[in-house]
Amino acid sequence: MKLELNQIQDLNKQKAAEQAEHFGFLKLALDKKGIDAEAIVQKLADFQVAIPSWALGSGGTRFGRFSTGGQPVNLEQKIEDIGLLHALTQTAGAVSLHIPWDIPTDPAATKQLADSHGIVFDAVNSNTFQDQEGQVETYKYGSLADRQTAVREQAVAHNTEVIRYGKLLGSKSLTVWLADGASFPGQNNFRKSLQNTQRSLQEIYAELPADWRMFIEYKPYEPSFYSTVIQDWGTSLMLAEGCGEKAFCLVDLGHHLPNTNIEQIVATLMMKGKLGGFHFNDSKYGDDDLTVGSIKPYQLFLIFNELVYGMNHNEANNPPLAWMIDASHNIKDPLEDLIQSLEAIQLAYAQALLVDTPALEAAQADNDVVLGQELLQDAYRTDVRPLIREARLRRNGALNPITTYRSLQVRDHLIKERGLKTVATGL
Predict the structure, then answer these.
(1) CA 397 to CA 91: how far, in whole Å?
(2) Is 153 part of any domain?
(3) Which of 22, 103, 182, 388 has the most other CB atoms within 10 Å of its CB?
(4) How far apart are the C-alpha atoms of 131 and 238, rounded to whole Å?
(5) Residue 285's CATH number
(6) Does residue 243 lie within any of the structural domains?
(7) Is residue 236 part of a domain?
(8) Can you tell me the distance from the alpha carbon of 47 to that of 94, in angstroms, rounded to the nearest whole number?
(9) Per its UniProt record, what InterPro entries does this chain match (predicted)?
(10) Following CA atoms 76, 79, 84, 86 in sequence, which dihedral angle do they give, to the nearest 10 degrees?
(11) How many helices, marked H, and strands, marked E, lie in the chain?
């Protein structure tokens, strides 16, 4: 299914006058504060987030998985679904592939299909946390960190293969996340596991094209619960620095212990010039992979405040960041869930762009804690939705993507095309 521009525009006309009124009112209010609303709208229009190919179907847990119906059963259908998201939101202009879940059988044709939807290929992701059919060595006890040389060589070879697919599709980065760790004391030697990981990552790094980057993701626990080899941002940073200037840290919002100050981690990594990208999601207890902004929207705003500050004060020459979603849609329509996540990301970004940084720095210099909080919360409490809608409108997106999605009965059409019991690859 592919949405036509006139379908979206016809529905936009019903709310066009209301949007013009709301945008005009907010623009006037921001002008009085010396904030350029037009500049913010342009930044929002340019901001693109990669959709993970593994998140276009219903997610699940070890207790069950419930299909939404009409789910994509191959990579081509997944790209078509991202095309739907991009047509509606105009901020989903990239896809992040997970290999081997989504191996392109004809990379040239896959790239051409993506081009037709205005989609580029962001980071490609390797998978050494599952055994695949026909695989010689098992990852049950580890992969890049494993004590067995043959296992490590197999995991390195897989990452090299992922790079090869990425090159064919036009990707410029590789994301490495390891499930390697221990479930019980005495299972692993901590030092040797970390040394093996560093050597394995260096071998993968040596295969990177000159214009590529490698993102090293961290996670404190799960699937192992006693220890994880790359358990925090410091270990990720150490490994990245041990590889070279093209290696960076990747921050997944769900990969932290409860109440971790993620915004401080962001600030530190950008100061070091080693923040490579983001996996957006939300959580209540752990790596819940919930809809972005559904649980901790203020934290998301504070994170974006540090991101915006870092991008505007980039003394360490931190490269442009890779923005990606990593979520699991266990009970929602996956496309609606992703639309909500994209909206939440845009909201937090827009709010952060409203922060009066000079005034905030002056308050900090005067130790005026109250004013500092007021300045942040004034930006956070501003209803920036008219700015986001205006950015979408100017790119021919939908003023209200969820309403448009439902009005056009997209899910019903997908079920008619693909069937009710289809199951997408991925978690």
Answers:
(1) 9
(2) yes
(3) 388
(4) 28
(5) 3.20.20.150
(6) yes
(7) yes
(8) 11
(9) L-rhamnose_isomerase (IPR050337), Xyl_isomerase-like_sf (IPR036237)
(10) -160
(11) 16, 11
